[in-house]
């Protein structure tokens, strides 16, 4: 049987393959296969081939014949970056937004001139990409040049993206004349103006070019014939694709180690007038302490064992037993209810961290209200993807509690928001497919969300 496209999601522990056919007539999701990721064996293709064999078995075929194989990857540490700017709330924030939106795992953020300890950390991290920003266009120049010279002196042979004051570009070329350098439009060209999209695109292009050099990934191009994207960046791409059809939305992915939140929405007129600093239309945050397996104990500590026992209507001893015997995939009804509670706390906490809030300041003329952070009040759809929010029985009610959790000062979606679930768990796959087949990817995504 001919499969038009296979998309592999190469994770740190598991490789999943999704198959799609009939792209030229009526795009159809064929099914899924999975296998352990084989980075440690030195060749990710071993796990990739096993996942394809599992896919064939799941759709009752002896072998699979496919036209194209695309991929997303978070294996080998994903896209590791360090980000260096001038002022934390301005150029550093803009550079950070560009990196996160591209799907990066940011390991170090610095503001101002790099110190010796910062340079040591860069060497220890060995990032995939280094991003340098700093200064509005035709503004401050020295900090970005200072940082560039010290990074170049490390001689790390790591790709560098410069997205700072455009007046520095000629000097930056000279500093990195022996390095792989990418010059991009300034991420913060004027005060209160973000320009993150050009940098996001270049980050993903550089990632695709260099992922083959990651441990165990050297042979990935032998099998993958199309684009390779960071998995979180692919989810963002799918969210932006869907935004073009549905409008303002929020996508939440609760995983075993982290919770990712993606929003694509404009500020309301009311909030934009009192917003302290600009936010990108497409924003991603990743909460590294909120995971329902690896970081389960963080959520338990946040919620409290007594509170969990009360909500689950069990004893403290039973809660302790659930914690000590926690599995990646819950089996019993009680285990599933426990994971639902973890997912609820992760979802609400991550949404509040992602969204902004109203703040009141008292001055000589009385109380003034300001807004800080991302305004989610215009969001019309909340989308659940990832293992927990596509498989748990009460996933929709979990997401519905996001607006209900608002105490009045959070800039969260309103109660009339519509809940959608990525039932086939294919959002990341469709995000990378959209680079070549946007219309077909949108059709498949709407089917998975049960919108068509």
DSSP summary, beta strand count: 17
Q: What is the global morphology? A: globular
How many domains comprise the coordinates? Answer: 3
Gyration radius, rounded: 23 Å
Kindly report the spatial arrangement of strands forming the biggest sheet. Answer: 3-2-1-4-10
Largest sheet: 5 strands, mixed
Mean pLDDT: 94
CA(first)-CA(last) distance:
26 Å
Given the helix and strand composition, which structural class is it?
A: alpha/beta
What's the arrangement of secondary structure elements?
Layout lengths: L1 E9 L3 E8 L6 E9 L7 H15 L6 E9 L5 E7 L2 H14 L2 E8 L4 H10 L3 E4 L9 H12 L6 E3 L6 H7 L5 E3 L13 H14 L17 E3 H16 L2 E6 L4 E6 L4 H4 L9 E6 L8 H8 L1 H8 L3 H9 L8 H22 L2 E7 L2 E7 L8 E5 H6 L3 H10 L13 E4 L5 H7 L4 H11 L4
Parallel strand pairs: 1-4, 4-10, 5-6, 5-7, 7-8, 8-9, 11-16, 16-17
Antiparallel strand pairs: 1-2, 2-3, 11-12, 12-13, 14-15
Helix pairs in contact: 2-6, 7-15, 7-16, 10-11, 12-14, 15-16
Question: Describe it for me?
Answer:
The strands form 4 sheets. A 5-stranded mixed sheet has the order 3-2-1-4-10. Strands 6-5-7-8-9 form a 5-stranded parallel sheet, sandwiched between helices. A 5-stranded mixed sheet has the order 13-12-11-16-17, sandwiched between helices. It is globular and about 60 Å long. It has 3 domains: 2-76 and 214-226, 2-Layer Sandwich (Nucleotidyltransferase, domain 5); 79-211, Rossmann fold (3-Layer(aba) Sandwich); 233-448, 2-Layer Sandwich (Nucleotidyltransferase, domain 5), CATH 3.30.420. The longest helix is centred in the last third of the chain and has 22 residues, at 333-354. The chain has helices spanning 44-58, 88-101, 116-125, 142-153, 169-175, 197-210, 231-246, 269-272, 296-303, 305-312, 316-324, 333-354, 386-391, 395-404, 427-433, 438-448, and strands spanning 2-10, 14-21, 28-36, 65-73, 79-85, 104-111, 129-132, 160-162, 181-183, 228-230, 249-254, 259-264, 282-287, 357-363, 366-372, 381-385, 418-421. Helix 7 crosses helix 15 (427-433), helix 7 (231-246) packs across helix 16 and helix 10 (305-312) crosses helix 11 (316-324). Helices cover 38% and strands 23% of the residues. With 452 residues, it is α/β, with parallel strands linked by helices. It is built from 16 helices and 17 strands. The chain starts with a strand and ends with a helix.
